[in-house]
Amino acid sequence: MTTEDNLPVDLSSSFKAYDVRGIVGETITTESVRAVGAAFVDVLELNGQSVLVGGDMRPSSAGFSQAFAEGAAGRGANVRLLGLVSTDELYFASGALKAAGVVFTASHNPSEYNGMKMTRAGAVPVSSETGMTEIRDLAQQYLSSGIPAAEATGTIGSEDVLKAYAEYLRSLVDLSGSRPLKIVVDAGNGMAGMTTPAVLGNAILPGLPFDIVPLYFELDGTFPNHPANPLEPANLLDLQAAVVKHGADIGLAFDGDADRCFVIDELGAPVSPSAVTALVARREIARAKLGGEAEPTVIHNLITSRAVPELIKHDGGRAVRTRVGHSFIKATMAEEGAVFGGEHSAHYYFRDFFNADTGMLAAMHVLAALGEQDGPLSELGREYEPYVSSGEINSQLADVPAAVARVREAYTRDDVVVDELDGITFTAKDGTWWFNLRASNTEPFLRLNAEAVDAVTMADIRDDVLALVRR
């Protein structure tokens, strides 16, 4: 399939820094996917080796999986088609089977999109710095001149990893002794509609002491109910209402490919990803210490609440602060031997999960923490949210650098510490507030995150910075 002027698709429009994402039939096509499959094998030197290929519930994922498999096998790889998988299922398979792989998904993007997340063997991510650029360029060449035949064509078979994935997750968090919990799960018509019954229900394994109330479990890549993006508050409204209506103990919301999880308490209020990060960090530090680690390392990005590093240190762990973005977190996890990592965007990374992110495993830790004590989640969550946060506020600007310069001039003073690990962060020396400004890599947006010891201080800082930014 080619564009209207009969030229091959320009892959530079769909290849991003960490994944591939484009509009089906326009910037990502069956022909381009087949070429990427061939280039994936050649660049990563996978001739004669296994390659895992799976996809989410989007209408185009099955066809794209087959095309990628044909391109990869044509260059000598032995492909195992996994069928329908969540992104973290692909990471599990890549880690457990020690094979490179790809999952077709566009995560929370609208239905007209699809894309690819690629890994080397062991769930090591492929990014623009670790082979993706070379894959793009070689695939573009194959689109123009054709894919050469390998000396020996590889095979294409199939494998189902859902049961092994569920068993593995259950081996990491024992939920069998939990008190009975009523859980509302909003799958958003995404892959959690398949993985939740497998891991938390009794679809494959023996049942747990949970009463699961399903919302939008039907796999439907057209997203008929709401976008599968729980980061947007509007997409949590159905879950919040259902938790209250059913008198549930907790609500869980997953994005389309189920690698992120958001948590709602019994009152229908969101539990921040920072609070989830702190809660899971406490559990993973304790477990690592039981295993003999003196000072377990936990990674957090610079947008997470100040409560996260404070709790890590309080519990005898070592907190390492990183830039925003899964490639930085995963690289730092490996470099530091970290037991866990968390981001403000609800991505949670585990050493025992091949340093990869999995929303389901994070949800299981929250369920375990809730189920081993008698109090409600709202009380448990307050323990991990001592500060007041603004959330992420975007400003669309004609001149982002000029806006940052105005803020820098106003806040460069003796009682403020400034650092530029990612964007620019200003922190009051007395510890009462901090805020970060980060420019979007792809849009004319400046993102503000602020936090303070109380609501009045947070609002004062937020409003003052926004006035400077939007002047």
Automatic annotation (TrEMBL):
Cofactor dependency: Mg(2+)
Keyword set, alphabetical order: Isomerase, Magnesium, Metal-binding, Phosphoprotein
EC numbers: 5.4.2.8
Annotated InterPro entries: A-D-PHexomutase_a/b/a-I (IPR005844), A-D-PHexomutase_a/b/a-I/II/III (IPR016055), A-D-PHexomutase_a/b/a-II (IPR005845), A-D-PHexomutase_a/b/a-III (IPR005846), A-D-PHexomutase_C (IPR005843), A-D-PHexomutase_C_sf (IPR036900), Alpha-D-phosphohexomutase_SF (IPR005841)
Pfam families (UniProt xref): PGM_PMM_I, PGM_PMM_II, PGM_PMM_III, PGM_PMM_IV
Keyword Metal-binding: yes
GO molecular function, one term: phosphomannomutase activity
Domain Alpha-D-phosphohexomutase C-terminal, chain residue ranges per copy: 392-467
Location of the Alpha-D-phosphohexomutase alpha/beta/alpha domain: 14-141, 164-268, 275-385
Listed CDD domains: PMM_PGM
Listed Gene3D superfamilies: Alpha-D-Glucose-1,6-Bisphosphate, subunit A, domain 3 (3.40.120.10), Alpha-D-phosphohexomutase, C-terminal domain (3.30.310.50)
Name of the top EC class for this enzyme: isomerase
Family membership noted in the UniProt record: Belongs to the phosphohexose mutase family.
Name of this protein: Phosphomannomutase
Species whose genome carries this gene: Arthrobacter stackebrandtii
